[in-house]
Amino acid sequence: MSFKISAVIPGYNEEKSLPETLTRLNKVVDEVIYVDNGSTDSSIKVAKRYGATVISEPRKQNGIGYGYALITGMLNSSGRYIVTVDADGEHEIEKILQIVAYAERKSIDFINCSRTTRDTSIINSLIRKFGVHMLNLEALLLFGIPTKDILSGMWCIKRNSLSRLSLNEGGWNLSPEIKLSAFVNQNVSYVEFPIQGTLRKEGNSQQVLWKTGLDHGFFMLRYRVATLEYQVRVLAQSFTKRLTYLIK
C-alpha cells in the first residue's frame, strides 16, 4: 500500500506470546508499537528483539493499564491507519491488509473487528462468549449499536479521526468506550468487520471474567447517562439562545 499502517499492542508480562504475534505483524504492517504496562518479565527485551518500538506506560486504573497503554500507543503511532491487537495473538492479524483496504476504499474512520467465530472448547471461552453476548445486547438497547463484539481488542482507526473521540478509560473499559465514542459521533463513520478469534496459546489472561464483565456493564450504563446529560445541556443551551434572540 502507498500509505503507512501502524499496529499497537498493549502488554503486561507477555514474553511467551510476543514472538509469534510480532512475527505475524511484521509481515503486514509498517510500524509495530508495543506499549508495556509495567512487565516484570522480559517482554520489553523480546519486543525490541523483534523490531517493535517500545513505549513504557506505567499508569493504571484500579490495577489495570490496558486503556492507558492503547491510548498512548495510538497517540505515538505514525501510520495513516492504526490497528490494535492483543499480545496473545488471538486476533486474525493476517486480515489487517484486507481491513485497511476496506477502510480506504469505503472512506471508513473506525472499524470494529468483531470475533464472529471462536473456539469454545473450554469453559472459560463459553463464559466469555455468554458475557460478550449480554454486553452486545446492552449496547444495542442503550445506544442502538448493532455490534457483534463490543469487547473486541482489535480495531482499525484512521489516524486523523482519533482526535474526534473522547477517550478517558485507563483500564479494560477503554474497549467499549472507543466503540461507543465512535458510534455516537456523527463525524466518525463506524462499521464492523468479521474476524476469527482464537484462544490464547501462551501465558495467562490478566482478566477475571465475571468481574470485568460486570464492570463493563456498569460502565456502559454510566456512559449512556453521561451522553444523555450532554444532549440535554446542548438542547437547553440551544433553546436559551433562541429565546434570547426572540426577546431581543
TrEMBL record:
Cited SUPFAM superfamilies: Nucleotide-diphospho-sugar transferases (SSF53448)
| Source organism, top-level taxon | Bacteria
- Enumerate the InterPro entries for this protein: Glyco_trans_2-like, Glycosyltransferase_2, Nucleotide-diphossugar_trans
A single Pfam family it belongs to is Glycos_transf_2
**What residue stretches are annotated with the Glycosyltransferase 2-like domain?**
6-161
Can you say what this protein is called?
Glycosyltransferase 2-like domain-containing protein
